Amino acid sequence: MMMPRPRTLLLLLLLVGVFTASSSASETTVGDGDGDGGQVYIVYLGHLASPDLSESEDGVSAVEFAHHDLLNQVLDDSSSASDMILRSYKRSFNGFAARLTEQEAHELSSMDGVVSVFPSRTHEPLTTRSWDFLSFPQTPTEELPLEGEIIVGMLDTGIWPDSPSFSDAGFGPPPSRWKGACQNFTCNKYEHDFSSMSQKNRSVCNTNHSPLKNVVAYSKIIGARAYRGGSSDGLSPLDDEGHGSHTASTVAGRSVGNVSFGGLAAGVARGAVPGARLAVYKVCWNGGGCGEADILAAFDDAVADGVDVISFSIGGPMPWQYFESAQAIGSFHAMRRGVVTSTAAGNSGLTGGRVCNVAPWMLSVAASSIDRRFVDRIVLGNGETIVGASINTFPTLTNATLAFPANGEKLLRSYLTGLAFASCSWLVVPLTVGPVIRTTWLVLCPPPAKIGHPNDGSGPLAAGAAGVVIVTRAPDVAFVLPLPGLTVTQDEFDRIMAYVNSTSNPVATIDRTETTGNPQAPAAASFSSPGPNLITPAILKPDLSAPGIDIIAAWSMLSSPTGNPNDNRKVQYNIISGTSMVCPHASGAAAYVKSFHRDWSPAMIMSALITTATPMNTPGNSGWTALKYGAGQLSPAKARDPGLVYDASEGDYVAMLCAQGYNTTQLALVTGSNATACAAGSAAGSAGDLNYPTMAARVEPGRNFTVRFPRTATNVGAAGAAYDVKVLLSIEAAKDVDVDVSPSRLEFSAQRQKVSFTVTVSGAAPAEGQVHSAAVVWYNDEHEVRSPVAVYAA
Predict the structure, then answer these.
(1) Considering only 118-127, 223-232, 323-332, 402-411, which range has the smallest mean pLDDT?
(2) At residue 239, does pLDDT exceed 50?
(3) Rounded distance, CA 788 to CA 646, Å?
(4) Mind telling me the catalytic residues?
C-alpha cells in the first residue's frame, strides 16, 4: 500500500486519512489567495459544433480566438486574454481555463453563451487474486483480438512502460479510429526484421551495410500525454508515483507469472482485458495533486482521440453540482460520444464524507474486500500476542524496547531529557542518548494531535527507530510501512500501553506478515465513501462495489513502495488499497463487455454491470445497505450476457437535468441544440424517472409515502424471451413497505425490443438516517436482472 504523501491527491487510501481521529480529505483551488489574486477558473461553454484543428498565422485557432474575445470583454485595459488563458478546450467540448479575479469570474458567469464558471479545484487521486475472487477467468487466446480493438483511457499519474504488465509482444496496429499521440514518450518502437535472413546476414545487422529494413513493433500503450497547470509543454507521462501504473495494469495488464510483494500475494498478476490498448493522460503530480483544469483537458483529448472507456480514480470528500465539476462535464461529453466513464466513489467513509462522483452518466464504484487478508502480530514481553495488519516483509524484529512519544510520557522523557512530542508525525530528530542512536526502539504511535499530521511511520523512520506500531481506524486494511511495524485498533493499542505501564523494561517482537483467509468477503470497506447522493437524491450512488483492499498490481521503479524518500526499496509490483483500486476493476469489466458489444451505449454497459452484481446483504455487511455498496459486488463474466438492460440517451439525461432544476438556456448550450427544452410544471417529472438500473428515494422520516419509478427494459437476450418478477424485501422493510410492479411479466418477440413497467413503493418512512431496502428482480431460466431499491429518510 502506498504510504501517505501529505500532498498526494489520488483515491488510494492515504494513511493520514485513516489514522487521524477526525481528519477529512481536503480539496483546494489552484492559485488560492485573496479575491483579486488571479485564481484559476474553468469557463464552461457547452457543446462544440466541430473540433477546431485550424490555426491562423499567429497560431490561434478560431475557437481560441472566440475564447479570447469573450474574456477580453471582462478584462481591464491592463490585462490581455492571451496572458490569462491557460488552456482552451476545443476537441470534444467548448470552454477554457484562465486566471481570473472573483469579480471577472462573476461577470463572465452572467454572459450569454456561458454555462458555468467555477474554480479549478485540486482533487484527490483517491491482481493475483482479485479477478479470481470475482470468478473472472483469464482471457482465452481467441478473445484477445476482440480486446485489441478496445482502448482504455487512464486519467492518473502516468505509467511505467517498462513493467512486464505492459509488454508489447504480439500487438498489431492500433484501431484505425485512433487519433491520439505520444508526447515526450515512445509508443510504437522500431525493430529489425530477421525473418527472411540467413544466420550469416544476421551477424551484420548492426553495421552501416545491414540489408535489414526496420519494421514497426506496435505497442500496448498507444497514447501518452501529460498536463500541468493548463500546459503540456515538455511534460513527461512517466509515472513517478506508481499509482497510475497500478490502476492501468489492473484494467489491462498482461498476465505475468511469479509475481509477489516480498513473497506476499504470490501468483499471476493480470488485468481484466490484457489484450486491450492503453492511452495514458497524466493529470496527477507528486506534490501537486490533480487540477480540474488539467482533468478537463484530458477528457477533451481522450474523447477526441478515440478511447472506449475512461478510468478515473480521482475525487474529493464531497460531490459538486454537475456543471461545476470537471469530471461530470467531461464524462457527459464522453457519454455523448459513446465513451463509458468509470470512477471511484471516494475514500471519506471514515470522516463523514459522501460518495463524490455521482453523475448518472458515470459509473461510481465503492470498495469491498476479497477473500484474503494480510495480518501481523506483536508479541509483548509478557507473552501476550496482539494481532494487527500490515504489509511487513522485513526480518522479524525481536525484543525491541517499546517507546511512546507523547507529551509527559515518562519513558521517552527518560531517554530524551527535556524533549516530548505531540505524535509520531513530529518524531524527526534522531533517537539518541549521547552519541548512540536507539536503533532498537519500537515506537508506539497514537493518533496525531492535529488533523493532517502524517502518522505513517515516516517520523520514526527518519529518527532511526527500529519499528513502529500505529493506531488505525481502518483495521480491514493492511498498509506497506517503511520500517518493521503494524497497525492496530485503539483498543489493541490500549492493551499495549497497559503492558508498557506495568514494567520498567517493556519489550516486544514483531513478526513478518502472514496471509490468512477472509470468509466474510466481500465486505464493504470501512473507508469507502457512502451515499446518499447529495446532488440527485433519486439516483442511487455508489452504483456497485469492486475489490479495493490489499490489491497487488504494477508499480513504478521511480518510486518506493511507500513513496517515502527515506525508503530505498524498489518493487515491480505493490500492494495498496483505496477506491482508486476499485475503479480500474470496473473499468476493465466495462472494457470486457464493450469488446463483445461494440454498439452498446454507455448506459447499457453500466446497466449490465449493475444488474448482474452479486448481492452483498450478507452477515459480513451487517449494518450497511445499498447506500454503502450499491447493487453489490462486480461480476464481469455475468455482465457480458445480462439478458435485459436499462438504456438511456442524451435526451433522457437532459430531461433528468430539467427535473433537477437546470434551465432550457443552459441545456441548449450543453447539447448545442435549440430544440432542447424543459417541460413545464408536472410534465417535467422527477429525477427518479430517469431509466436507471437502480431506484432510490429520499422521504420525510416517520411520514407515509408513495413513490413511483417508471422503467423501460431493453431485451439483449433471446428474441422470444419472457421474464417474471419477484420482489425481495429486507426484514425491516417488509414490516412497513409494499412494492408493486406492473406489469408483473415482460414478454419480448425480438432483440432490442423495449417494454415498460412501473415500480410503486409505498408505506411508512423509516426513522431519520435509516433505510428501507428492497430489490426488483426480473428472472427466467437463463437470467436474473436485479435492481436494488433504497428508500431513505433525511
Answers:
(1) 402-411
(2) yes
(3) 13
(4) 156, 243, 580
